[in-house]
Design goal:
This protein has 157 residues and is of the alpha+beta class. Helix content is 28%, strand content 29%. The chain has a 5-stranded mixed beta barrel.
Length: 157
Amino acid sequence: MAQASKGRGWKWLFWLVVFPVLLFVLYTWFVLWWSYAEGERAGYLQKLSKRGWICKTWEGELKLVTMPGTVAEPFLFTVRSEAVAKKLNENIGQRVSVDYKQHVGIPTSCFGDTQYFVEDVRIVHEPTLPPESHQNPAPQPAPAAPATPAAPATETK
């Protein structure tokens, strides 16, 4: 009789503790592995910092500017790779393009504060305009008007 109650105790422990923890681990692994969306964004890198109480993650902000003079939209992101974080840190204030994946449903902020995880970064070089002299050539003088014959002098008496 004592043997039967001992076996049931392990089953209850499994179903109450181990099984929910196992489900949580599998769910977390799945949402970190599967991406809901992926894409590319370009903008000016405003900040990047490593933060967190226990789980330290790299968190950054990109300012997306569509046209000069418009209000910049912030794009908040997380970086997992130290190499990508180093490259971003070297280019604070520069225009960059980032490749990201969006992971929806992450159960804790220990993996990052945002849903957007940057995986690669490229520096975007602004197009250079040709020198001013080539863009607007100096105006050419107008051709001289054809010479008209002088009117004969008339004598008045």
